[in-house]
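Pipeline run #58 for the internal structure catalog. This entry was flagged by the ingest filter as a single-chain record with no existing model, so it goes straight to prediction. Upstream metadata was stripped on purpose; only the residue string is passed forward. Reviewer on rotation: M.T. Logging verbosity set to normal.
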Amino acid sequence: MMTKLLNYSEKINIILILLVSFAANYYYGSIGVFPVDTFAFFDSANFINKGFLPIRDYWTSNGFFVDFFQSIFFRIFGTNWYSYLLHSSFLNFIFAFLTYRFFLNEGLTKNASLFYSLSVAILAYPPVGVPFPDHHSLIFSLISIYFLIFTIKKKSKLYLLATIISLSIAFLSKQVPAGFFLILIGLYLIYFSYKEEETNFLILIFSYSFIVISVFTIFLFITSIEIKDFFIQYILFPLSIGSERSDLLNVKSILLSLINEYKFLSLLVFIIFFQVVNIQKKNEINKKKTFSATIFVLVTIISIFNQELMKNQNIIFFILPILIGIIHSLVIDNKKEKINLFILSLIILNIFVTFKYHERFNENRKFMDFKNINKSNFIDGSLITNKLKGLRWITSKYSSQLELEANQVKESINFLKANKDRSMIITYYQFINSEIDHNVYPPNRWYTSDGVSYPIKGNKYHENYLNFFKKKLKEKNINKIYTIKPLGKNAFDFVFKLDCVKTFKINEILYQHSITNCLATLK
């Protein structure tokens, strides 16, 4: 009877995690639009179902897995806003659920494990809401850490395979922080095999890795994605960006960030370090408990370093509840009254940081730059297209002119529906190609001028990009390129000679660029 009650309570907990994970991500993920990020995987995933593939058909430096996974959701549930958020909500749940299982494995009660995992569900994916490569990479990297811990503690071959697969998915979502986690996990697995004299375990590591790489190589072959193109776009070009960004890092800026931006993470890392040292000195039996804590100290350091390297909006604060839960697990064997007060303070701290960062990133939508924008003033996304039903349309640029923006976008869509033959559409509103059912996908997923989306002039892979762009123009025999503000002619004019393009204004945001006898003589 007791077993049945325990099973029932665990099912209730999993249902609660499911409901919070989906509800939080759907609700907050539907508040506001930052077009270049919000729609980054909308058109691209839909076009996979029409036969267009990343690397092969459009230049992409990250998000390879995100594209393909989202295309599955679109194929099953239709190309719409709900299935777009279903993808990220599902991953939010999987991560929160594995966090729950992790804490149970660390010795916490079901209620304590539920408490910390619900905080993770609130803080992990909802700040961005939609599928995004940075979140995918970090979350799958952390999932690989969970599986690593299960692997070491249980010496499980299945968990070892899961570790390698999840780490591979993280890398195919975005190269960093997955690359840093790959180094951490790889070195530790080799160290563990050597320390425990587990030669067979080491053989399994290399065998599983070889199998995963082989399967991916076969996938590239089947989809006609050239291995050379994959390496240039996904490995070599991003490395050229990373080397430039790493030059900007300095010890002083990182220390200031640890004190100001990451003070709670720094505090928790210090407490964990103190607890680990204390346990190592006093209790030989509980030394195994310090493994997870030590790993997560390194995880936090990697996450902070990566955040500083990327210089993007901060996404790592959902690690806070995990660190607090780890501290909780380190002290639960101690029955002293002071420890009970300490655990109470941990619970209060977790409530505080969850509320603090929920308010900042979910309520205020900091990731979308909506801190000072009235979020109750919005346009229903269905007024632009039924594919966006459920989206509360707000953009920071047009926050006081939402109807004007919505009308201009809709007017542009109506024009493009009637003028889509042999044309290419370059825009941050990357749902428009899906709405007009176009049959030409632009050569890029991202169009930013900072040299991160594609190799700009001066980058050693710029010539590769130029040849790639020209090839797509010739293959589709493009005679018109449409741009929608804030993008304009400068998004592509480096490909053509000066007298090859004539520009016409269609409306306040839409421009038509006619290509006149240029395709055969592209510079």
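catalog note: Residues 381-521 form one domain.
catalog note: The two ends are 78 Å apart (CA to CA).
status: ready for reviewer M.T.
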